[in-house]
Amino acid sequence: MKAEERQREILTAARRAGSVDVAGLADRLGVARETIRRDLRLLEDHGLMRRTHGGAYPVESANFETTLAFRTTMHVPEKRRIATTAAGLLGDAETVFIDEGFTPQLVAEALPRERPLTVVTASLAAAGALADRDDDRITVLLLGGRVRGGTLATVDHWTVHMLAGFVIDLAFLGANGISRQYGLTTPDPAVGEVKAQAVRSARRRIFIGVHTKFAAVSFCRFAEVTDFEAIVTSTRLPAAEAHRYSLLGPAVHRV
After folding, report:
1. For the chain, first and last CA: distance in Å?
2. Does residue 176 sit in helix, strand or coil?
3. Which residues, including other chains, have CB under 8 Å from residue 20's CB and lie 6 or more apart?
4. CB count, 10 Å around CB of 133?
5. Alpha carbon distance 117, 96 (integer Å)
6. CA separation (Å) from 168 to 123, 139, 198?
7. Are 88 and 251 in contact, with CB atoms under 8 Å apart?
8. Taking Cα atoms as reference points, which of 76, 73, 40, 77 lies closest to residue 58?
9. Per-residue pLDDT of the chain (255 residues; tens, 9 = 90+)
10. Structure pTM?
11. How far, in Å, CA of 66 to CA of 61, rounded?
């Protein structure tokens, strides 16, 4: 097998499983572990994978995006801590936007029960989680549009137009990547339009995401780091890197 074929096989396996390990790939492909490490370094250089200790995981791109079901299996304890901390930053907000994705869904579930709130969301999963609470103090407005099967969220001009009609106190937003140079990015232009409109419609904005989102860059930029009052992430983001983001304006919470 040529190097290019082997690297395509590695990338395909990582996208299918969510991650790969050096030992398993070496056995499967019949090559030395050092060969696999070189392949992973090359794939990382091309922005297709991110290496970890003993393996790697795929980076989301214009041609690849993980599903909501997959996201519910990755870094779950960290995401729950992030969601709880982010919900605690609600302040006096009465209207809230909840983004698509698993971490925003957890924020929706962590919202306080003792006060009235209006929640606007494009996420069917977040809307369903709030509806299940049987709490008449929460009003849920689900944005209409085309439903993306992988993420169970609405997009396209219907969604953006409806969202543009609101003035929202606070938006909880995720991203496929966040970097100091390129801002917040996502693979799909339709998703990027919804997120960009949420940024425009909200008075306050909080980014929520695990450490793997940082320094990752996807296809469509929808916001700058300076647009956010706070970033809530996990402690696996190095403190020095968190400080660099804080210099751009947001308060960075590592939990």
Report:
1. 44
2. coil
3. 10, 13, 14, 55, 56, 57
4. 14
5. 7
6. 16, 14, 8
7. no
8. 40
9. 789 899 999 998 988 887 899 999 999 999 999 999 999 999 988 878 888 889 998 877 656 677 777 778 778 999 999 999 999 999 999 999 999 999 999 999 999 988 999 999 999 999 999 988 777 889 999 999 999 998 999 999 999 999 999 999 999 999 999 999 999 999 999 999 999 999 999 999 999 999 989 988 888 999 999 999 999 999 999 999 999 999 999 999 999
10. 0.84
11. 10
- For 249, the 3-state DSSP assignment is coil
Q: Which amino acid is at 240?
A: A
User: Which residue, among 200, 129, 108, has the nearest Cα to 160 in the 3D structure?
Assistant: 200
In degrees, rounded to 5, the angle at the alpha carbon of residue 219 between the alpha carbons of residues 218 and 221 is: 90
Alpha helices of the chain — where are they, by DSSP H?
A: 3-17, 22-29, 33-45, 68-71, 76-87, 102-110, 124-131, 157-164, 189-201, 239-246
Alpha carbons 162 and 141: distance in angstroms, whole number: 10
What's phi and psi for 30, nearest 5 deg?
70, 35
CA 189/CA 119 separation, integer angstroms: 24
DSSP secondary structure code for residue 2 in this structure: -
